[in-house]
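Thread: quick sanity check before group meeting

JM: Hey all, I'm pulling together slides for Thursday and realized we never actually wrote out the predicted structure for the chain we discussed last week. Dropping the sequence here so it's in one place. If anyone has concerns about the input, flag it before I start.
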Amino acid sequence: MTVRAIRGATQLESGDREHLFERTAELVREVITANGLATEDLVSIIFTCTPDLTADFPAAAAREMGMGDVPLMCAVEIDVPGALPRVVRLMAHVNLERPRAEIQHVYLHGATVLRKDLAQ
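JM (edit): ok, ran it. Output follows.
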């Protein structure tokens, strides 16, 4: 089985915990759906948040979705002046027998401006 990486990002309207969990869960679901994945296909997920998101960890939202056995990690995105605020990004590593060109990366809400070439 080949390990592939899938990228995704979403922008939040506010930094509160409930909204963070809602948008993170939406992003994870969209990545899974767009790529026809099952939870068993996930090797790991790395989440990053912009420094303005501090209410909780995006990985906690994924655990609430039933991904307690998937290795999850969170980090803070580099604080670049003028960067898009309130963004959660992910890189999911998955077992997938599909060419890299067929991977569907997912950019939601205001995060579509980050990768217009990849946004759906």
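AS: nice. The helical segments are 17-34, 58-64. Residues 47 and 74 are 5 Å apart (CA to CA).
JM: adding both to the slides.
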